[in-house]
């Protein structure tokens, strides 16, 4: 997708691959480490994101996000601020279950969530509650940026989706329309006259300038 000049930017970067990702297990707040491939993904992505000249990096304190952020810190020299508010959605008894096990044991609850209903998956957090803690953490970090500065937020797929939804003003039942992020892919929000605009989603390259009418 595209970018536009001026204004602050927020890059929301998902952590690298874990063993539970490969097994399609719901991680939630369980602290699962990166695989060797996950570390390599983080290193490759960090080399690209460093070209944005970021001014600040914040990250979930769960090791899969913290270790991903460390790869960017290594090439930029920036200090990473860790914040529990950026953790993945707590999903109670769903955590540690595979997708198939969730469907077998909690199929009705899963179906309600897919329909966009407010559901405490596994007895855990509502998506709006995740946004209630994560979006303000991003806002606080943005407030410390210089003019036209860039913030990198290293977090988790569900938390990133809810944070984007909140920041660009989508109704909660529509957040799932944003889709997921691949491991170590990112989304970019740009400051706009009406608030925040989604410039890129599930990207692995840097945004190109807008050339055309939609500026």
TrEMBL record:
- SUPFAM superfamilies linked: Phosphoglycerate mutase-like (SSF53254)
* Listed SMART domains: PGAM
Which InterPro entries does the record cross-reference, listed alphabetically? Answer: His_Pase_superF_clade-1, His_PPase_superfam, PG/BPGM_mutase_AS, PGM_Phosphatase
CDD domains reported in the protein's UniProt record: HP_PGM_like
UniProt protein name:
Histidine phosphatase family protein
